[in-house]
Structure formats: structure tokens, C-alpha cells
């Protein structure tokens, strides 16, 4: 166990016996700056962020269905500094999960598995996320006025 | 070799696994996650564009937008698929990271129940607005 990479090889059989074998990437064992592992865990984290964001969607819709006072409270939060920050983060997560999800669908269809292509599509997803997030907010701010 | 003449070696792989229990839903969970993701692709893009258009809109303007038949139907589709996809995704995350079985079952039930409640709340809100206008 002198090599830190061994941390990614310790597994347990169903009877509890410790065995030496490769495992799925996990945070302690892998270099998260690799394109492959970073885009993978980020996809999961973006999905979880979007899941938390559905609470805002539910609050917005329920408030709109309740009264103008309830709706004003949502609008106050959404236009506060914290609200804008949360909405910006959700936009980022939504675009990332959408583009990375598209990449997963292409993989599911059996294409793009070789390392150069994986790095190329990974970069495209990251750049696309930033471009679409910035565009979304530029348009939103333009409409706000 | 002795094993090659044993009755076990004569059996087909299918014959060996038959009667050992069902494969349950097989790839259904995985497949539904892909199906909902494909459907969510255009719906989410429509939703983001719509929210850009609604930025800074007042109460009445928002109600009128939600209440439009096309928007109400697309919103309910988005809600149903989002919470289906979300429950499926969170289920995988929980199954991957929660090792204690009791904790895993409780977490799964809470997530499934929460997703169902949120989906109902969102759908009810859209319908109430749509029918009131």
C-alpha cells in the first residue's frame, strides 16, 4: 500500500473478504483534474444541484397558484443577491447536465469512446456550458429592463 | 477432464440460471432514464428560453403565461419527466454511496416520496392557475 493508486484497488467481496481489484473512480483515489473523472463526477453533482433547484420551481409555481403576496415573496428572493447567485448556479448546472447528458447519450449509442474524442467532447461540453450560461444571462438581463 | 463429462458441463448457460430467481425489471430503470433524458432535452431548452422571457415579469403576466394551454401542457410534461428523471438519478446516487441497508431504504423512500409530492404540488399549481384564468 505504498503506492497511493492502491487506494483505488481495495474492494470487498459480498462475504466481507478484502480483495485487490480496480474500482470505479472515487474522490480519494483519483486525480479530479483529469477530463474523464472530472466531467463524470461533475455530471452527477450538476444533477443533484438541479434536483435541489426543483424546490425553487415548486415554490415559484405554488406561490403563483396561492396569492400575489406569496408570489411577491418568491420574486423578492429571486431578485436578491443570494437568489441571483442560486439561479446563476442552477443555470450553470442545467446547461452542464444537458450537454454532458447529450455526451452520455452519444456514448450509449456506442460512439466517441477513444481517449482523444473523449477529451475533445469533454472540452466542448465545458466551453459550451460557459457560453450558454453567459448567453442565457445576457438575454435575461436584456429582458429584465 | 472430469468436469467436461459431468452433467453440469452439458447444461446450457440458460439452463443453469433458470429457477434461480427473476432478473426483476432488468434494464427498465436504465432505459427509462435515457427515455426521460431525451424528452427533457427539448423541454428544458424551451423552459430556459421561456424563463428568459419571463425575467422581471409581474404576477399577472406570469399567471397568464402559465395559464396558456400550450404552456400549461408543456409545463406539466416538464414536471412529470423532470421528477421521474430526478427520482431515478437520485436513486442511483443513494445506492452508490449509502452502504447501510436500513439507511439506504429510508433514504430511497424519502427521495421517492419527496419527488412524488413535489411533482404533484407543481402539477396542481399549474392546473389551478390554468383553470382559474
UniProtKB/TrEMBL annotation, chain A:
The keyword Lipid biosynthesis does not apply. It is a multi-pass membrane protein. Gene3D superfamilies: Fumarate reductase/succinate dehydrogenase, transmembrane subunit. The chain crosses the membrane at residues 41-62, 74-96, 124-144. Its cofactor is heme. Keywords: Heme, Iron, Membrane, Metal-binding, Transmembrane, Transmembrane helix. It comes from the Bacteria. Belongs to the cytochrome b560 family. Part of an enzyme complex containing four subunits: a flavoprotein, an iron-sulfur protein, plus two membrane-anchoring proteins, SdhC and SdhD. The complex can form homotrimers. This is Succinate dehydrogenase cytochrome b556 subunit. It comes from Roseococcus pinisoli. The lineage of its organism: Bacteria, Pseudomonadati, Pseudomonadota, Alphaproteobacteria, Acetobacterales.
From TrEMBL, chain B:
It holds the Pfam family Sdh_cyt. The keyword Thylakoid does not apply. It is a multi-pass membrane protein. Keywords: Electron transport, Heme, Iron, Membrane, Metal-binding, Transmembrane, Transmembrane helix, Transport, Tricarboxylic acid cycle. The keyword Nuclease does not apply. It is found in: Membrane. InterPro entries: SQR/QFR_C/D, Succ_DH_anchor, SuccDH_FuR_B_TM-su. Its main location: membrane. Its cofactor is heme. Pathway: Carbohydrate metabolism; tricarboxylic acid cycle. It comes from the Bacteria. Membrane-anchoring subunit of succinate dehydrogenase (SDH). Part of an enzyme complex containing four subunits: a flavoprotein, an iron-sulfur protein, plus two membrane-anchoring proteins, SdhC and SdhD. This is Succinate dehydrogenase hydrophobic membrane anchor subunit. It comes from Roseococcus pinisoli. The lineage of its organism: Bacteria, Pseudomonadati, Pseudomonadota, Alphaproteobacteria, Acetobacterales.
Amino acid at each position: 500500500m505504498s503506492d497511493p493508486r492502491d487506494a483505488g484497488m481495495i474492494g470487498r467481496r459480498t462475504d466481507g473478504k478484502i480483495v485487490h481489484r480496480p474500482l470505479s473512480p472515487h474522490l480519494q483515489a483519483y486525480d479530479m483534474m483529469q477530463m474523464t473523472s472530472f466531467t463524470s463526477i461533475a455530471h452527477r453533482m450538476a444533477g443533484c444541484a438541479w434536483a435541489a433547484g426543483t424546490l425553487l420551481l415548486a415554490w415559484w409555481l405554488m406561490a403563483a397558484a396561492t396569492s400575489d403576496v406569496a408570489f411577491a415573496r418568491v420574486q423578492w428572493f429571486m431578485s436578491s443577491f443570494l437568489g441571483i447567485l442560486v439561479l446563476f448556479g442552477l443555470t450553470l448546472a442545467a446547461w452542464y447536465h444537458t450537454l454532458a447528458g447529450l455526451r452520455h447519450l452519444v456514448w450509449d449509442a456506442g460512439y466517441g469512446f477513444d481517449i482523444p474524442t473523449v477529451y475533445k467532447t469533454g472540452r466542448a461540453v465545458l466551453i459550451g456550458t460557459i457560453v450558454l450560461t453567459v448567453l442565457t444571462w445576457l438575454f435575461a438581463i436584456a429582458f429584465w429592463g | 477432464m472430469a468436469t467436461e463429462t459431468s452433467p453440469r458441463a452439458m447444461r446450457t448457460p440458460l439452463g443453469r440460471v433458470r429457477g434461480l430467481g427473476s432478473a426483476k425489471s432488468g434494464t427498465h430503470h436504465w432505459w427509462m432514464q435515457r427515455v426521460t433524458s431525451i424528452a427533457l432535452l427539448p423541454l428544458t431548452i424551451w423552459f430556459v428560453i421561456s424563463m428568459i422571457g419571463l425575467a422581471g415579469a409581474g404576477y399577472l403576466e406570469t399567471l397568464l403565461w402559465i395559464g396558456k394551454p400550450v404552456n400549461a401542457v408543456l409545463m406539466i410534461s416538464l414536471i412529470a419527466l423532470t421528477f421521474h428523471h430526478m427520482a431515478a438519478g437520485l436513486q442511483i446516487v443513494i445506492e452508490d454511496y449509502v452502504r447501510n441497508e436500513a439507511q439506504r431504504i429510508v433514504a430511497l423512500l424519502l427521495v421517492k416520496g419527496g419527488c412524488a409530492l413535489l411533482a404533484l404540488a407543481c402539477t396542481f399549481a399549474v392546473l389551478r392557475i390554468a383553470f382559474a384564468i
